[in-house]
Design a protein that fits this description.
- With 179 residues, the protein is α/β, with parallel strands linked by helices.
- It has 6 helices and 6 strands; from the N terminus they run ααββαβααβαββ.
- A 6-stranded mixed beta sheet has the order 2-6-1-5-3-4.
- About 5% of the residues have low confidence.
């Protein structure tokens, strides 16, 4: 939104400059291509800064699913993962209760996990949880504030599952491969 406001301001400035200096219709029509070229110059100068800022926000590390070491799985199907994080699957195959930990909805890691591993947008997952809660048929996952807290809680809660960036996973938790 801020970028759109800046673009509008620059456009108004360029229009004002060309309108004041060159008032005849013939001269203004000649300068339309120049205005276009000035826009190209503005975007070519600002382009690398805009793309660098967005690249810094998104890490290149992949998200991995982590679980308590007592979970006897090395591979988990995407469909099962969606059922677990959708709060539809409540127990592991051995009967142990599943405790789901998630990051805040606005956390970039949560957004990345939902889109790349669950194949859904975070707001759709939130809407599903809200529907379960308000209908009285389910519960929401436990929200944590940081990845370090996620690892700590998954490590100390039997049957727990969560997710972190690949470089943050350590040997104290089991890393589940998605198949």
């Amino acid at each position: 939104m801020a970028l759109a406001a800046h673009i509008d301001t620059v456009d108004r400035f360029l229009r004002a400059v060309f309108a004041m200096q060159y008032s005849s219709l013939a001269v203004r029509s000649v300068f339309k291509p120049i205005r276009f070229l000035m826009w190209l110059l503005v975007f070519s100068v600002l382009g690398p800064f805009v793309s660098t800022a967005s690249a810094e926000q998104v890490s290149t590390d992949q998200m991995v699913v982590i679980a308590h070491p007592s979970v006897n799985k090395d591979l988990i199907a995407r469909r099962t993962l969606r059922a677990i994080f959708g709060m539809r699957m409540r127990n592991w195959s051995d009967g142990e209760s599943i405790t789901v930990f998630v990051l805040d909805d606005r956390d970039p890691s949560h957004m990345d996990f939902c889109e790349s591993n669950l194949g859904m947008l975070p707001y759709n997952l939130r809407r599903h949880w809200d529907r379960l809660i308000f209908s009285g048929t389910g519960r929401a996952p436990i929200r944590v504030s940081t990845a370090e807290e996620m690892i700590s809680l998954v490590r100390s809660t039997p049957g727990a599952i969560g997710y972190v960036r690949e470089d943050m996973a350590d040997e104290s938790v089991a890393v589940l491969q998605i198949g």
